[in-house]
Amino acid sequence: MIGLSLNCKFIQKILTGFIVNEVQKAGFSRVVVGLSGGVDSALSAYLGAEAMGAENVYALLMPYRTSSPESREHAELVVKQLHIQSDIIDITPMVDAYFERFPESDHVRRGNKMARERMTILFDHSAKLKALVLGTSNKTELLLGYGTLYGDMASAINPLGDLYKTQIRQLARHMGIPEVIVGKAPSGDLWVGQTDEAELGFTYEEVDRVLYLMVDRRCEIPELIAAGFDERFIRAVLAKVQASQYKRRPPLIAKISARTIDRDFRYPRDWGK
Amino acid sequence: MNRHIIALAQINPALGDLERNLALHEKTAEEAISRGVGLLVFPELSLTGYFLKDIVSSVALPLTSPILGRLRDLSRRIDLVVGMVEESPDFLLYNAAIYLSMGEIQHVHRKVYLPTYGIFDEQRYLAEGGRIRTFRSRIGRSAILICEDMWHPSAACVASLDGMEILIAPSASPGRGGPEEGKTFTNASAWETINRAYAQLFTCYVLYANRVGYEDGACFWGGSELIAPSGESVAKAEYLSEQILVAEINSTEIRRARIVNPLLRDERLDVTLRELERIRREGTR
Q1: Looking at CA atoms only, how far is residue B151 from chain A in angstroms?
Q2: Does ipTM exceed 0.95?
Q3: Which residues of A touch B181 (CB under 8 A)?
Q4: Which of A36, A156, A229, B178 could pair with A132 as two cysteines, CB 3.0-4.6 Å apart?
């Protein structure tokens, strides 16, 4: 059985509780979130506003010159609906300045740079506003490695990381996020007409079903085939999950001492909180 | 006097902060006392918090600790079940629950089953308890089983054969699985099944005290409950919010359940022992 349907009311309560709790434990009372115009960052902002109060949420819109005007409209719609503070920071000058030296760079390098540029801005604002950076990566993207390490994958706390993309949409609709945002094709907005699903080669609906069975239900490949999934598709998904494992772990430390950080020096992150 | 007022303390302890948690215990106990409660049950590791990892050794207390002295004093006014990390005289650390009454520690249960799978890591940090015993408390013949102990029917069965009328189950259960439309966490539903089943099968009261709050992103779901020997719910706490759940139990309900369902009478201890011995002898386990 594929259990991707959500008890939205219950989840909403858990996630807002999570945000309040973890923000306070870190000694903060505000959050900052980068709004792309997509459903993930919109949902993060909605949850943040409900958890902390609209006055404690700060949104940053960080377009690049090729970003679609529609993305910005949708991000502004979120700001307006939530009555949260916001700022627009155009990342074109810094990104272009860098690539003047590397004009041959492909779209992957350019996309990564933009994502990391936004991350440094978010964390700078974290210090400026005394606000924790709220994450926007969902479980599908995290498992597929479809994100930029130390870019859009970076955050202080992430309320969305255990929800698949299709579940994000359910919760987003439940929380009243406008349908123009929830219903549109997910996109990294790196070039005109880009969509996640075209780039990945499958839809989120399909991949969420197989990921749910593979990860949550621990189904083996023969079981997935028996469940009706195409073997090439299953193997392609598994390969992406394996190839991106390094992105989901902290950097490896060469083990020398009697007590290596994270290996046998193990404390909860909420240590002393 | 067969009726007793019980309270389940659905609290949110601070991770690794004994002093703060002790104050929380005292405050909760004062409120329970003011509501006429005779026994107050705190969740698993209520004095320390749950996902301790390497903090374990820093918050471990010997049973002679002055910190427990404050709880002993409190127990002159109200019976208490408190969760703690117990440090034995030979420096082993146990996930323990103690029953305090009349200024004394009346019973200690050391968690027997230490989960070390999924998000759990207990066996890495703690020693296993080796005893399941009932004891006479103010409310009747009682046994304490801590969290994962409850997932092993053999533990409850042993306690039942040892005379258990009241099953006290402190837990720190983080929500896992789902929750799908119209449902709570998968493991929360499983817990609720277990509590009802044990109450009915062992014809005992089940006092299930679960905590709330978050630790490193894990969400403790609450939902503490008190189940009668008939299997019916007497009282149920909210999910996800702090609460002191107060309810009354009546030991005549145990009698009534055992007359209707004489399961305990019909238990075949000799058959059980013989078959367990055989299984051990044949080495299938």
Answers
A1: 20
A2: no
A3: 5-8
A4: A156
CB pairs under 8 A between A and B: 62
DSSP states of chain B as a string? Answer: --EEEEEEEE----TT-HHHHHHHHHHHHHHHHHTT-SEEE--TTTTT-S--GGGHHHH-B-TT-HHHHHHHHHTTTSEEEEEEEEEPTT--EEEEEEEEETTEEEEEEE-S----STT--HHHH-BPP----EEEETTEEEEE--GGGGG-HHHHHHHHHTT-SEEEEEE--B--S-PPTT---HHHHHHHHHHHHHHHHTT-EEEEEE-EEEETTEEEEB--EEE-TTS-EEEEPPBSS-EEEEEEEETHHHHHHHHHS-TTTT--HHHHHHHHHHHHHHT--
CA–CA separation, A227 and A218 (whole Å): 13
Nearest by CB: A7 against B17, B54, B183: B183
Considering only CB atoms, A13 lies closest to which of B177, B217, B240, namely B240
Using a CB-CB cut-off of 8 Å, the residues of chain B touching A258 are none
Write out chain B's pLDDT in tens, 285 residues. Answer: 589 999 999 999 999 999 999 999 999 999 999 999 999 999 999 999 999 999 999 999 999 999 999 999 999 999 999 999 999 999 999 999 999 999 999 999 999 999 999 999 999 999 999 999 999 999 999 999 999 999 999 999 999 999 999 999 999 999 998 788 888 899 999 999 999 999 999 999 999 999 999 999 999 999 999 999 999 999 999 999 999 999 999 999 999 999 999 999 999 999 999 999 999 999 866
CB pair distance less than 8 Å for B15 and A273: yes
Question: Taking CA atoms, what residue in B is nearest to A270?
Answer: B216
CB atoms B15 and A6 under 8 Å: no
Cα separation of B260 and A253, whole Å?
A: 63
Give the mutation candidate from A1, A14, A139 for the B interface (greatest B CB count, under 10 A): A14
Instruction: Please give the model's pTM, rounded to 2 decimal places.
Output: 0.94
Kindly report the nearest CA distance between residue B14 and chain A, in angstroms.
6
Give the residue on A whose Cα is nearest the Cα of B51: A268
Question: Rounded to 10 degrees, what is the CA torsion of A240, A242, A247, A250?
Answer: 170
| Closest approach of A174 to chain B, Cα-based (Å) | 12
User: Residue B255 and residue A108: Cα distance in Å, rounded?
Assistant: 73
